[in-house]
Design brief:
The structure holds 2 protein chains of 2 kinds.
Chain A lengths: L7 H10 L4 H19 L2 E4 L1 H16 L11 E5 L26 H8 L3 E6 L33 H8 L5 E6 L5 H7 L2 E4 L19 E6 L2 H11 L17 H4 L8 E5 L9 H16 L3 E5 L7 H16 L26 H13 L2 H14 L5 H24 L2 E5 L15 H5 L6 H6 L2 E9 L5 E8 L4 H14 L10
Parallel strand pairs in A: 2-3, 2-4, 7-8, 7-9
Antiparallel strand pairs in A: 1-3, 4-6, 5-6, 5-10, 9-11, 10-11
Helix pairs in contact in A: 2-3, 5-6, 7-16, 10-12, 10-13
Chain B lengths: L6 E11 L38 H13 L7 E2 L2 E4 L9 E4 L6 E8 L9 E12 L3 E4 L8 E4 L6 E7 L6 H18 L11 E13 L2 E4 L3 E6 L2 H22 L9 E6 L4 E4 L12 E2 L6 E2 L2 H9 L5 H10 L5 H9 L2 H14 L2 H19 L10 H12 L5 H14 L3 H7 L7 H14 L1 H8 L7 H10 L5 H14 L1
Helix pairs in contact in B: 2-3, 5-6, 6-8, 7-8, 7-9, 9-10, 12-14, 12-15, 14-15
Classes of the chains: A alpha/beta, B alpha+beta.
Chain lengths: 495, 490
């Protein structure tokens, strides 16, 4: 088994024992990227030189006995939505093609403090809006299990680079399912933490009340390892919560002594693919065999999740993306476009309109328009305010459920990875990709996606576990129990 | 005023820059006058991913002001985004407070020292916090359309104080602004410099006009850009006349035209319709998801309340009732700010004669402060030095004109009152000697005696002049009185 096929946890042990160096490990990944990236397109930029320099520095520190961080020498790929000082951060958009932040996202600081090696920036749907990574302004990303198919999104690059062994660890963001859905479609593990568990400072906002940063990796224990570094209160993010961070990687192998899992009937209603349903039900049976109690629970408002989400998220986005106006940074329309054109539009309005029409892709523009509309006078109460009320009801559903069960178990997606272009002309079909995932964001609870099977055609199937706020530790332990009993997470695509 | 064929109705929206070292949502300095764009950071520049964190000091300064305006403080308040596009607003929205402001329903009492209007209570609708925008500097030289943006001011904490339309004249609006500024100065919550923009005022103005068919209201106009108390007064008066003329011409009343925004042009002394804003008036307010709501406790509110101290209205009353000052004098002293009040209190306590202390401050001391354009802190004489001078006046050793000479000499030389008196050769004249002098002069001036007896008391002035020639230290008032007494008894 080559070094890059090992888990991050195994690699870390080898780094610590001196059997490999960070430079060797990093170089191995760079070689792999060189080999398979042309077929996958998981990265927007691979930062080979910087990564090797960083790796050499970690090796030097280790050699001289200097204190090392928790991820010392491990390569990490970062979704291109997390600001990194003096390094281009595009958010998958033409709007930020030449944007170089003068500051680090808090999670980037944490990675650096943990002595991780930043390998490069992964591809994504523009401004994290999409479920297939086809909305990237730069290039699409192919699913490593079938390159004619999409990897999911918006963290498509983050998931694809893991399953194609181009990185041991990666950072994604999840606003409505953007970590869990691509993790499921690419056959890796992805965790959406509780809202407020990880600082959002430096995460380019899509929908601020829903966005969370989370880890992706091949295994649950690797996810726990990275999560331990990411989590924690940040004085720069008022919405981050000041509660202690458990040692996730230390406890992940302790099975839960008792575990009650809730099953929601709607999850297996119309629309779910039979193979997915079978795999998820088989996973439930596995948990039963591990001693878990299964209970049917009601989530009466779950059906309104998508409708609620597609009002709240665009509303916030329409405001969050107002700053991309060409005035201060980022893309600006050609100056020649600003000359009088006979309309009564002033040059400033013309600059705004052309800049935003040219700099944003179609899906981003669609969501800005949706949100602007829903916040407008006369529509606010009927849409935005109503959506907030439903959101509270959904949270109430979760609170009730977690009064009865420890976690909710179910599918991540209704279907396995779909073909490229299949849903690009049908936004509603694309939005339904988030059917099982958005409610966790609306309620602010934690959710994890882990491999639980394959379709007959060999595409990965994901299992979702959701836990009450700040119960990541239990969530990871429960997920690890499943991995101990199964081997889906060990399978890799042939490339 | 009152002969105008209409009544002016005025409500004011006042923006106060709160005196914090750092901005409302980041750690950038709020200092005025630095080179453009040197006090900025990713947060106030609205860069992607940067997040706001509330400056608690700004919140408490806002609460202090609201409490002093007798506003109620809700226990729960939140932040909202006011969305509009403009280059000096880098996020594309202003973080403000919409439906749950930090304070509501207060008032400010105003009165005119010149009897321009009856005392009035102006009710406050609300006072809420928000962040300031940057500054746009439009360079329109020779058809060039360049604009420059300075974002140093972006994110500076503002308290917006919105009044009910309770004022009925431009003079009331001006006094409201002056009284508000005084209050803010006492509270030490703002620099209140209208020129630098730390105190700004927009006025909503319309007219109520009695007609044969009852009273009609003209469309409301918002006047902006009034950067001094005088321009507040002039802008409103101009606008009132303009609205009356327009109404006579068009007959348009409230509801028939949209609310208009006009800017006061101080050099031309007119209001001008402002170019329609780039955005529509729909600001699409919604709760800011990057900030958590603010929850305050009774203890916090009481702590802020206890730090408010004595305010102008209470001080004026105290100077009148406890110190016997006239309404006018106490008003003049209090309106100069807390430092002058403190000076008065110390002087009054040291010299013992409160009215004398009040009159001297209101007269001579303020004259010097105004002439030299200095504050009381820069005034050369300490209250105890002043008290020494006033004690000489009280004892009758100095008449008022001599006392002023001594005062002037003290300021010039920095000497004590006693030293100056000695240097100037001022001596108290013995009463017996003074009476002898008066008798001598009366004997020499039979004509004056006749005139006074004939009812012309002013004639005695000639004797005062002669007495001064004989002895420069005589007190003219004393001479006058003694001479009159002697003549009456002849």
């Amino acid at each position: 088994m080559s070094i890059i096929q090992k888990t991050a946890t195994e690699q870390l042990a080898l780094l610590r024992s001196g059997e490999i160096t960070s430079v060797e490990l990093t170089q191995a990944y760079l070689n792999r990227i060189h080999q398979v990236e042309p077929a996958i397109g998981a990265f927007l930029r691979v930062e080979s030189e910087a990564a090797l320099t960083q790796a050499a520095e970690v090796d030097r520190k280790r050699e001289t006995g200097e204190p090392l961080g928790k991820l010392a020498g491990l390569p990490v790929a970062i979704k291109d939505i997390l600001c990194t000082k003096d390094t281009p951060t595009t958010c998958g958009s033409k709007m930020l093609e030449n944007f170089v932040p003068p500051y680090n996202a808090t999670v980037v600081e944490k990675l650096q403090a943990a002595d991780a090696v930043i390998l490069g920036r992964t591809n994504m749907d523009e401004f994290a809006m999409g479920s297939s990574t086809e909305n990237s302004a730069y290039h699409p990303t192919q699913n490593p299990w079938d390159t004619s198919r999409i990897p999911g999104g918006s963290s498509g690059g983050a998931a694809a680079c893991i399953s194609a062994d181009m990185a041991p660890l990666s950072l994604g963001t999840d606003t409505g399912g953007s970590i869990r859905q691509p993790a499921a479609l690419c056959g890796c593990v992805g965790l959406k933490p509780t809202y407020g568990r990880v600082s959002r400072y430096g995460l380019i906002a899509f929908a601020s009340s829903l966005d969370q940063i989370g880890p992706l990796a091949k295994t649950v224990e690797d996810v726990a390892l990275l999560m331990e570094v990411l989590a924690g209160h940040d004085a720069l993010d008022s919405t981050s919560v000041d509660t202690p961070v458990p040692a996730y990687s230390g406890s992940v192998h302790q099975p839960l002594e008792s575990l009650t899992l809730g099953v929601v009937n709607q999850h297996f209603g119309a629309g779910i693919d039979a193979e997915i349903e079978a795999a998820v039900k088989q996973a439930i049976a596995t948990y039963t065999s591990l001693g878990a109690t299964i209970k049917n629970i009601e989530m009466p408002h779950a059906d309104y999740g998508i409708a609620t989400y597609y009002i709240i998220a665009p509303c916030e986005a329409s405001s969050n993306l107002a700053r991309y106006d060409g005035a201060h940074y980022g893309y600006r329309t050609d100056h020649a476009e600003l000359v009088e054109d006979g309309t009564d539009e002033g040059p400033l309005v013309r600059m705004y309109r052309k800049t935003r029409s040219e700099g944003f892709g179609a899906e981003v523009q669609r969501r800005i328009m949706l949100g602007t509309y829903a916040l407008s006078e006369g529509y606010y109460d009927a849409f935005y305010l109503k959506a907030l009320k439903v959101r509270r009801l959904i949270r109430q559903d979760y609170d009730n459920a977690f009064g009865e069960v420890d976690m909710i178990i179910g599918p991540v997606t209704a279907n396995a990875a779909f073909s490229k272009g299949e849903k690009t002309s049908d936004p509603m079909a694309m939005y339904l990709e988030d059917l099982y995932t958005v409610t966790a964001n609306l309620a602010g609870v934690a959710g994890i996606s882990l491999p639980c099977g394959f379709t007959k055609s060999g595409l990965p199937i994901g299992l979702q576990l959701q836990a009450a706020p700040f119960q990541e530790e239990k969530l990871l332990r429960a997920a690890q129990m499943f991995q101990n009993a199964t081997d889906f997470h060990t399978r890799r695509p042939e490339l | 005023m009152s002969d105008a064929p209409y009544e002016i109705v005025i409500g004011l929206e006042v923006h106060v820059q709160l005196k914090t070292n750092t901005k409302l949502f980041c750690r950038c300095s709020t200092m005025f006058g630095s080179p453009p764009n040197t006090q900025t950071c990713p947060v106030c520049l609205g860069m992607p991913g940067a997040l706001p964190v509330m400056n608690k000091k700004a919140y408490f300064l806002g609460m202090k002001t609201a409490l002093a305006l007798h506003c109620g403080i809700p226990k729960f308040t939140k932040w909202d985004r006011k969305n509009y596009f403009y280059p000096d607003l880098p996020k594309g929205y202003q973080t403000s407070q919409f439906d749950l402001p930090m304070s509501e329903e207060g008032y400010l009492d105003i009165q005119s020292t010149k009897d321009e209007f009856e005392p009035r209570r102006v009710r406050i609708i609300r006072a809420h916090l928000e962040e300031d925008a940057g500054k746009s500097i439009h360079d329109e030289v020779a058809g060039k359309g360049d604009s420059r943006i300075d974002l140093n001011r972006t994110g500076t904490p503002l308290l917006e104080i919105v009044s009910y339309p309770d004022m009925r004249s431009a003079a009331e609006a001006k006094v409201y602004m002056q009284e508000l500024r005084l209050l803010l100065t006492y509270l030490e919550v703002s620099d209140c410099n209208m020129q630098e923009g730390s105190l700004r005022c927009d006025a909503n103005v319309n007219l109520h006009i009695p007609t044969e068919n009852g009273v009609i209201a003209t469309p409301i106009v918002e006047i902006k850009n009034m950067n001094s108390f005088r321009s507040v007064e002039r802008g409103i008066n101009y606008e009132a006349k303009r609205q009356y003329d327009v109404w006579q011409e068009t007959g348009k009343i409230l509801g028939e035209l949209p609310k208009q925004t006009r800017g006061w042009d101080d050099s031309a002394q007119v209001t001008r319709a402002q170019r329609e804003k780039e955005e529509s008036a729909d600001y699409r307010y919604f709760p800011c998801p990057d900030l958590v709501p603010v929850v305050v406790t009774d203890e916090q509110i009481e702590e802020v309340r206890s730090g408010i101290g004595e305010l102008p209205s209470g001080l004026r009353q105290r100077l009148e009732s406890d110190f016997g000052l006239s309404t006018y004098t106490s008003d003049v002293i209090v309106n100069q700010g807390r430092a002058l009040v403190d000076y008065f209190l110390e002087l009054a306590a040291t010299c013992g004669d409160h009215k004398l202390a009040g009159n001297w401050i209101q007269g001579e001391v303020l004259r010097i402060l105004n002439d030299q354009e200095i504050s009381i802190d820069e005034f050369k004489l300490t209250p105890s030095q002043m008290a020494e001078l006033l004690r000489l006046v009280q004892a009758g050793d100095l008449d008022s004109s001599k006392a002023k000479d001594v005062f002037t000499a003290m300021l010039e030389s920095g000497q004590s009152a006693a030293d100056v008196v000695e240097d100037l050769g001022i001596e108290r004249v013995d009463e017996g000697a003074l009476e002898d002098l008066c008798r001598m002069l009366i004997e020499r001036n039979q004509r004056v005696v006749d005139d006074v007896k004939g009812g012309n008391e002013k004639a005695v002035g000639a004797l005062i002049g002669q007495a001064k020639k004989e002895n420069p230290n005589v007190n003219p008032g004393q001479v006058r009185q003694i001479c009159l007494d002697i003549i009456k008894n002849i």
